[in-house]
Structure formats: structure tokens, C-alpha cells
Design brief:
binds zinc ion, globular, mainly alpha
């Protein structure tokens, strides 16, 4: 299913580990961007659903596209007013790039386990040896657990007064 929310569990976890270094927003943006592919093929009734953007080569392209979107939005924000949702304007390129890279590559890794039509190593190989390596239930459970653990870490940080949102801010504006 496109836009699976399970990818956001690891996003919360990695952002909780290093809130200043890894952007949650760019992590999620890269994931959504990659899943535009199966959504397009699904609504146009074309199979397989997972193609170029569900390979590590495609993930590199999605990573660059995500960085370009954030860079473009920053430029646009310098000439016209844009809402500063989640403090994105304060993000520097480093956490954006790190978040986008982790988001892109973890997406391919997780989808390789989940979907039989993902060929992560294309064009080198069409083999997907990760498919079904653990059950969907275990995969989804670990993604949800990662998200909960991340939320606990974020919550504890906020209670202790060390809360840091995107780019070192303290939450949405
Ligand atoms: Zn996907």
C-alpha cells in the first residue's frame, strides 16, 4: 500500500536519537516522494507497482529530489511569505540531507522485506533476498515499536527541558 505509515516509526526513532542532526520532515518527505511511484501505478492500473524509485539507485534520485525541494522552498521563502510549519525554515542543509538519505534508504530496506516486486539492487541484480525474511507482523510491529520508543525519548527530553524540534527549534510554529 502506498504511503504506509509504518515508515514513520523509524523516522521518529532516528530523529529522537539525533534531533539536531537528522530532520524528521525530510525523512518523511523522502518516504512520501518514493511512494508516489506505487500510487501512480496503482491508480493507472499498471503492475508491478514498485519500480525504479524502489531501488537503491532510485532512492539516490529521491534523496537528491528531496534536498532540491527543501532548497527550492528556502529560496521561495526568501521572496514570498511561506508558513514556517514545524520550523522548517530554520533547517540547515545537513540535517535535511541526512534525514532524506536515511528516509530514502530505509524505505527501500523496509519495502524490500514487505513487497515481492521490489528489486532493490537493480540494475546490478533483480534478486530480492530480503523479501519475507521476517513476517509482515514482525516488520510492522518493530516499526511501531521504534516509533513509540522515539516518542518516549522525545517526551522525556521535553519534560527535562531539553526538547528540540526540527533544526534545534522547540516545536511547530
Ligand atoms: Zn514504498
Amino acid at each position: 500500500m502506498p504511503f504506509t505509515p509504518f515508515h514513520f516509526g523509524p523516522a521518529v526513532a532516528v530523529h529522537a536519537i539525533a534531533p539536531r542532526q537528522i530532520s524528521f520532515l525530510s525523512f518523511c518527505a523522502a518516504n512520501v516522494l518514493i511512494d508516489v511511484e506505487p500510487l501512480y501505478y496503482m491508480v493507472t492500473d499498471q503492475y508491478p507497482l514498485h519500480r525504479f524509485f524502489h531501488t537503491y539507485v532510485g532512492a539516490c534520485v529521491a534523496l537528491v529530489m528531496t534536498i532540491a525541494i527543501f532548497a527550492g522552498a528556502r529560496r521561495l521563502a526568501s521572496v514570498m511569505p511561506l508558513p514556517n510549519l514545524f520550523g522548517w525554515k530554520r533547517l540547515t542543509m545537513r540535517p535535511i540531507a541526512l534525514g532524506a538519505a536515511l528516509g530514502s534508504f530505509s524505505h527501500i530496506l523496509l519495502d524490500s522485506v514487505m513487497h515481492g516486486d521490489v528489486h532493490p539492487l537493480w540494475p546490478v541484480s533483480n534478486v530480492n533476498s530480503l523479501h519475507g525474511v521476517i513476517s509482515l507482523r514482525a516488520l510492522h510491529g518493530s516499526c511501531i515499536a521504534a516509533g513509540f520508543l522515539g516518542l518516549i525519548v522525545v517526551g522525556v527530553r521535553r519534560v527535562l527541558g531539553k526538547g528540540e524540534g526540527e533544526g534545534g527549534t522547540r516545536g511547530p510554529e
